[in-house]
Amino acid sequence: MKPLALTLALSLTAAQAAPATFLNVATGSSTGTYSAMFKNIGVQCTQSAYLKERGTSGSLENIDLLLSNQVSLAFVQSDVLKAKQQIDQDARVENIKALLPLHNEEVHLFAKPAVVKKNIFGKTTTTGVTTFADLKNKKVAAWGGSLITAKVLSAKLGVPYTILSVKDRDAAFNALNGGQVDAVLAVVGQPASWVKDLNGVNLVPIAYTAALSGLYSSAKLLYENMGADAVPTVAVQSVLVTRDFKTPDKKKILLDYQKCALTHLVNLQEDEGMHPKWQEVTFKTWPWPQYK
Q1: Angle at the Cα of 284 (from 240 to 233), degrees rounded to 5?
Q2: Which of 1, 167, 211, 228 gets the most CB atoms within 10 Å of its CB?
Q3: Looking at residue 47, what is its pLDDT?
Q4: How far, in Å, CA of 176 to CA of 139, rounded?
C-alpha cells in the first residue's frame, strides 16, 4: 500500500505545483471602451480569471503585440487587420482568428471652430476645417489604430493630407491647440467619456460614400457639449482576436471564454454598469475568420 500511497501523494503534489495557464490581453487605455468591455465580460465569466489585462495605446500596438507573441489576445479595429493583410501583406495575419466580434467604433474628427471674416466689400470668407474635404493638404494628428484609419480614409475618399503620429490623446490635442495640426482624428466607441470633457473644438462631419463600403458603415455622433444636432460620421467594427492556438489548455480557456460571452450577451446588454456599446453587439457579424 505504501508505494501506491506515495505515488498518489506525489501526483497530487505535482498537480498542485503545476502552474496555471494565464493569457495576456491587450486592451488600450484604462478609461477606454476596450478596457471597459474586457472588465464587463469578467463580471459574467469566471474564465476571465485566466486572462490578464495589458494596457496599451490601442489597436496598432495591440496587433503588433499579438503578432510578436507578447500577448495572446487583442482588441483591434477590423480596418487595422485588413491593412496588415492587404497593405502590409503580413503573412502572420493569416494565423489570426476572431474570438468575439464586437461593437462599431466611430471615427471622431475634431477641429477648431471655423473663423468667418467679412471684408470691406461685405464678402465673407471661412477658414478652417468644417468638412472632411477641407483637410486637403492640411495636417491631421492621430495615434494608435486611428493612424491606420486616417490613412485609409484619405485614400478611399481622395483627400490627401499629412498625418502626424503622436503618442496619445493629450499629445494630439496639444498639437491642435498649438497650431501644429489642423485636426485630430480618433477612432473610439461612442460615448467616449473624455469627449464629453472637451471644449473649444467642434466635431467635423464625415459623409459615408460607396467607396467606404465593406469596411466602414454609416454612423452618427451625439455629444451635448458638441451641439444639439447629431454629426454624421463612419464607423469600423472592432473585434477581440487571438492566434490560432492548438494546445489543449489554451484552446479550452479560449473556447470556454468565447462560449460564456456568447451565452451572457443579454446580461452584458442589460445589467447596470455595463458599457452602453454592448447594446450594439449581436455576435452575428464576424469581420474575420472565427476561432473554433
Answers
A1: 75
A2: 211
A3: 86
A4: 9
Q: Are residues 116 and 194 in the same domain?
A: yes
> Which residues lie below 8 Å from residue 198, measured CB to CB, with a gap of 6+?
110, 173, 225, 226
Whether 150 and 116 map to the same domain: the answer is yes
Instruction: Supply the pLDDT for residue 169.
Output: 93
168 and 152 in a common domain: yes
**Predicted local distance difference test score (pLDDT) of residue 15:** 40
Count of domains forming the chain: 2
Q: Are residues 80 and 135 in the same domain?
A: no
Ranges of residues in the chain whose predicted pLDDT is under 50: 1-2, 4, 6-19
How far, in Å, are 195, 219, 267 from residue 107 at the CA level?
12, 9, 27
In this structure, how many other beta carbons lie within 10 angstroms of the beta carbon of residue 82? Answer: 18
Report pLDDT for 87: 87
220/265 same-domain check: no
Looking up residue 117, the CATH number of its domain turns out to be 3.40.190.10
The structure's pTM equals 0.84
100 and 242 in a single domain? The answer is yes
Residue 189 lies in a domain: yes
Instruction: State which residues form the domain around 77.
Output: 22-104+238-280
In a domain, 12, yes or no: no
Strand partners, 106: 188, 235
> What is the DSSP track for 6-45?
HHHHHHHHHHHHSPPP-EEEE---TTSHHHHHHHHHHHH-
What's the confidence (pLDDT) of residue 216?
96
> In the prediction, which pLDDT does 31 show?
81
Q: How far apart are CA 187 and CA 49, in angstroms?
A: 29
Cell of 33: 471602451
